Amino acid sequence: MIKISILYPNTGKFDMDYYLRTHMPRSIALLSAGPGYRGVSVERGLGGTAPNSAPSHIAMCHYLFDSTDDFLAAFLPHAAELQGDMPNYTGIEPVIQFSEVVISR
């Protein structure tokens, strides 16, 4: 299984309300219709390791697919729409990482 992580560093404004109520429902509707979709989770950064410190990432989204090819087949037809919506919730450049899930319980 492959995890696609979209990490938003805590370097600017992020409209979590818009992201959760508008962007993510649309993203889920589009990507979950693709092959190999297994799920998605969204996290809100709360803090760093030091007491009362800011989180390194303000938000994180993790999609699970059977393979990288499955994700690309689901995402690429909708890439312009989903990426075009980003200015509505942030100006932060996300960090994208593809990972192989080796343990999941």
Structure explained in plain terms:
With 105 residues, the chain is an alpha+beta fold. It has a single domain (2-100), classed as Alpha-Beta Plaits (2-Layer Sandwich), CATH 3.30.70. Helices cover 29% and strands 30% of the residues. The protein is built from 3 helices and 4 strands, in the order βαββααβ. It has helices spanning 16-31, 68-75, 79-84; strands at 2-9, 37-44, 57-65, 95-100. The chain has a 4-stranded antiparallel sheet with strand order 2-3-1-4. The longest helix has 16 residues, at 16-31.
> Which runs of at least 5 residues are low in confidence (pLDDT < 50)?
none
Radius of gyration: 14 Å
How many individual helices? 3
CATH topology: Alpha-Beta Plaits
- Number of self-contained structural domains: 1
Q: What is the CATH domain class?
A: Alpha Beta
Major sheet: order of its strands? 2-3-1-4
Helix amount, in percent?
25-40%
